Amino acid sequence: MADSSSDSGHFRQRGGRRGPLRANRTQNHIAEDVTEKIHTLASTLQDTNRNLKHVDQMLGQYREYNNEQAEAITNLKETLEQSIGQLRSQRLSRNSGVRSASLSSLYASDLDGETPEGRHFQPTSPLRDYGETVGTTRRRSRSAVRFIDQGDNLAQVHSLHQSLRDLSSEQVRLQDDLNRELSRRNRTDAETKRRLEDLSDRLNESQRQETVSERVQRRLEEIEREIHSERQLVKSRQDQLGHMSVHLQEALKQQDAKTNEAEMILKSKILKMEGEKSKLEQDLEHSRRKLNQSENSRDALLHQIEDLRSQLLRAEEERLNLQHQITQVAIHQRRLDEQGDDRRNQIVTQWSDQEKKELEKQIWELREKLSHSAVMSEIEELKRCIERKDKEKAQLGMQIEVLTSDLDKRETQQQRMLNQLKEIQNNYKACEDECKAAELQVTELAQQLEESTKEAEKYLSEFRQSEALRLENEKKKEELKLKAQESIRHWKLRCKKLEHEIRKQTELHNQLMEKNTVVLKEKDDLKSQLLSAMHQMENLQKELTDVLEKRAKQEEELHCKEVKLNETISLHMALEQEIRDVRETANKLENELQKQSLTHTQIRTDKQHLEEELATINMIHEKDQARLLDMQAAIKNLSVITAELTNQLAEEEKSKKELQKTLAELQKQQESSQEEMATVSKQLKLERDVHKQELTELQSELQRVKSKHDQRVQEMMNLFSQEKEEADSHVGMLKHKRINSEDDHLKRIEEDRLQLHNQLRFLQNEKESILSMIGSEIDAACEVLSRDSVEKFTAVSLTPGVQKDPHRWLAETKTKLRWLCEEVKEREVKEKKLRHHLQQSRERLKQLTLSKETEHQHLIGQIEKQEQLLDQVYQEKKELLEKNLKKEEEIDALQERISALETSTQVALHHLESVPEKLNLLEDFRDFGDSHRQTEITEERYSKYKEIMGSLQQHLNDSKRRLEDFRGRIPRCTGSENGRGMEDLRWTDKKTRADISAIQSTSSNWRTNTGFMSSSMLSNSGCQNAVTELCSPHLSFKEQISKTQPQLKWDSSFSGHLPKVLFRWI
Question: How far is 697 from 699, CA to CA, in rounded Å?
Fold first, then answer.
């Protein structure tokens, strides 16, 4: 109570010092005042929460302590009474000095004289020093009674374990004593047997007189009697040990029951801990699942990005493979050319110089045609690959746009989540404030309860004393009535007076009881209020746990999304930079080719665009940095929370392992104690008989003591009758004094109660005034902050109905405090952003000025270089157009010649079909010697000729197809491909010329070798005219066919020389 009043006074002093707020204060002073108020409120609420928790713990502990202490006291009283009785009997037997021979086996002092070198067992308990028991008598084991908290179960188990160790050590000692005594008895038995054997030997050896034998027999009988008596003593001692074992078993059973209860309590606590652990593990698994889900989504995005990268890499690899294939094809063609050159050189050695030249020209032309067709096919494949790459680039652009849209959506979702987190934090703070206020109320109620309980305890103690006095008086009255009826007659009048006084006292007692009932009712009301407050606290704690779980989940999701955002943003920035570079280069080239005169104006516009883009990029970069800072702070908080949780889990696992170890040790000890109990029970049965004998002796002594006691009682009764009269007079005086003191005490109690009620009212008034002051200060702070804020706060007017309703008042104060915190945070963030923006803008201005100067100089140099390049490109373009026109004309001529060759090959094939018939006719006219050889030669030539003609047809078809493709592609080759096209055309032109020269050489070969077979074929003039007209470039395809068809009559020289030429050409 004193503390609360001092706090309220201090708060008033602070409120008086502050004074009214001025309108001209700066925003920093206002924010500081608001933060101070918020901190004071938060500290008061935290103190109340702590006090409430402490009160709850204390009440629960007191209840548990009372129950446990009552049970422990009852159990300990029984065990102590039994142990004290046993120890007293042992001490009496020791101190009296008349100790029976049967009890000598129970003590180590009786046996130490005979066996000084015997081994002594000492207990395992480290709490007592048993080193002094060797030379002196054994001390009594003192059992210390300790009341331990239920929370310290491990200490209780340890104490039980120590007591069990003490008992086991005592049992071991008793067993050792018994073993030593038995060994001594066995030795004596062995010695007697030895002596008997010696005597029997001596009797057998020396036959003495009968008197000596009789003496020996008597001596033997005496010895046997002594042995029998000693055995009986041993049996009695064993019975005594049996009795002791029964008592020890009972004590051990009680201790086992206690240990079982402790084990049950420990098991229940362990189960609770395991349940909490399982809950924590479930929460962790849930969080892990969410993390795995987020990581899977992240992995999916990464896979998509990797797929895009792999597609780009594949496109580049395909491009490289195509280039490699082109190089391989060129190398293969070169090898074929080299092989053809080698073969040609071998054939040229056989032929003449003129035929060599013609054949070489034709072969070179055909080679050029083939290489040209191959290059055209490769160019088409390259174009297709380029188109595919363009399509893939377009698809990638679409995918990037989709990803950007997804990123925007995720950013909006993150903003929503951040707003929800802020709301949750505000709700959490409000709940904490409510808890603190409730804790303050509960502390005050707890103080009142403590004071009322103290007063009630005082009343109860006084009432109990009065009841004890009354009971003693009634007992004395009844005893006096029975013993002295004559004296009662004289004291009847006084008794009546005393009865009247007792009635008055009972009335006073009834009044006191009524007052006590009123106080108890007030106590029950306070308890009910406490319970309601406790329920509210539990509900608030549940809500807090739910809010914290939601917050943890949201923070985990935020963390995963932040990681994804960072990765996607980095990829997006890299792709945007690449796309911008490509677009800028393409736009520059097109603008420079089309608009040479407007280069300076375009460069200026590009500069402006770049500056605008830089400004936007810088703004985006600033926003991203601010977001990254916020996210890093949240990640740090999450890491701290996870570390705390891991530490808690590790501590719980350690405690669990320790409890499991202690349980295992207890189980082992229990098994060992059970085994020891079995051994001790046998020994205690022997001691039981000894105790029975002692009991008979004690009963005889008790009878003697009773007779003496009766005599003393009679003497005391005479003395008591004399003292009774004196006591009655003294009791009357004491009663008058007691009544007066009780009246004064009642008056004091009523005064104290009135003072307490006044103090309660005063405190309630102070509480209302403090709350009203807090509300007024919060309203003033809200008004001051709402003047400058964008979203002005709509404060709720505090009506008297609202002030009567504390929940509504708390809700309003919570909303106001939330708004204040948000405003303060927003202003701090704005100030930081503005300062940071000023610094960045200054640095950027400096950098931009320097970069603009350098760019201006660089652009002027680039413009001059580009003008020169444009002039060169324009001239090359003109030359390429002229060359394209020439090549188109050449391609038309080549197509006409190829068609002529096709017709000639068809005619040759038809002729070859008729050749075998003509050969058969020639064979009839020739000699028989030459016929076999010529037929073999012609058949070989015919087979070779067929193969060569088939290959020629295939080659011609391929060359025709390639020429058509090349003709269709020539108009498409523009821009950067002109140089490459020129080189290809030159190369193809060379090859076509070489092919034409090869064809002409074959025609000349045909023309020179017409006279090989004069019987059946073309004339020289017809073949020559046909070949020259066929090879003439001025004639068209149709004219060549019309001229060659009537003149083509084949000679046998064609079938001999043509296969060689065609094979070399291939």
Answer: 5
Q: What is the pLDDT of residues 807-856, one digit of tens each?
A: 788 888 888 888 888 888 888 888 888 888 888 877 888 888 788 778 77
- pLDDT class of 169 with cuts at 50, 70, 90: confident
Contact partners, residue 677, CB within 8 Å, separation at least 6: 245, 248, 249, 252
Residues facing 687 on adjacent strands? 239
pTM value > 0.70: no
For residue 162, list its beta bridge partners: none
pLDDT, tens digit, for every residue of 859-880?
777 778 877 887 787 788 788 8
Q: How is the chain split into domains, by residue range?
A: 74-127+142-303, 358-374+887-1065
Distances (CA, A) of 550 to 286, 348, 556: 12, 95, 10
Q: How far is CA 1058 from CA 908, 1001, 1051, in A?
A: 11, 11, 11
- Residue labelled with tokens 């929940």: 807
Question: Of the candidates 993, 973, 1064, 892, which has an alpha carbon nearest to the alpha carbon of residue 369?
Answer: 993
pLDDT confidence tier of residue 1002, bands split at 50, 70 and 90: very low
Cα R_g (the chain), whole angstroms: 62
Pairwise CA distance, residues 626 & 630, whole Å: 6
At which residue do the structure tokens 């291939």 appear?
Answer: 1066
The residue type at 340:
G
Distances (CA, A) of 870 to 479, 585, 591, 600, 980: 143, 15, 11, 15, 18
Which residue, among 574, 624, 613, has the nearest Cα to 848 in the 3D structure?
Answer: 613
CA distance 187 to 194: 10
Residue in 244, 234, 224 with CA at minimum distance from that of residue 171 = 244
Give CA–CA dist 361/1012, Å, rounded. 24
Give me the DSSP letters along 753-796: HHHHHHHHHHHHHHHHHHHHHHHHHHHHHHHHHHHH-SS---PP
